[in-house]
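Blinded run. Sample ID left blank on purpose so nobody reads anything into the name before looking at the predicted structure. Input follows.
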Amino acid sequence: MRTRPTLSWTSADAPLPRTSSLDELTDVVARGRVAVLSGAGLSTESGIPDYRGESGSLRRHTPMTYDEFVTSAEGRQRYWARSHLGWRTIARADPNDGHRAVTALREGGYVSGVITQNVDGLHQAAGTADAVELHGSLDRVVCLGCRRTGPRADLDRRLRAANPGFTGEATRINPDGDAELPGDVVRRFRPVPCEACGGILKPDVVFFGENVPRPRVEECYRLVDAAAALLVLGSSLTVMSGLRFVRHAANAGKPVVIVNRGETRGDRYASVRVDRPLGPALTELVGRLGEARGRTG
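Blinded prediction complete.
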């Protein structure tokens, strides 16, 4: 039996105070040079569930780990069968008001860089083309043998051809595009190999238990170092992959502002903790900044 990855945390401290006011957030962002770190909570309003919220998928779902994917043919079959359906839902999702607000802040000169832990591509779809995808993107696949990468849409066509009778219906979609499917449906699914070398194809995302490529991590640190403040949007910061940037900013004496529903693992490092739905809060923030610029412009 495979070990479930450690995906949760329990705070030893009393919950730190949070606010619904955007006053302090507005003051920080108005000064500019803000780096954004976004998480799954930013995409829930697009119909993509998060992992750890009130209805988060980790309450009922263990995501694929890197170890299982590379060592288990059965695990890969299960992943690709479920992801074959789940990816279509992710690919059809549209950016929400939160994504559009981040783009407006970037275009307005307030945000100097965006790091996202999400693999759904919605920042780019909203117009933030230079967002750094910390955990990769479901839009791409990579061969573990020859390292060739390619569009997920091409793989989708090959999987459809290899599974003409595949009529599974997803009952639930998870943030990584992994859908819930009955076991008998999974066992009928045929994955396909790399066309170039016959190797194992993997989505170009960082699975749990897999390391983020070092150059990508260093790029994120550079964005945080160049910023005057860090704004965290919709992330519980449970895993070190994102939390390290919060710690880095706080250790450098930079303001850290967290906008999230509920407690996060990074609360102790934050100067401001806002508990509001992301879309409405960020839309209001953009409006406030626009009004202030209009008064002074």
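Unblinding after everyone has recorded impressions. The two ends are 64 Å apart (CA to CA).
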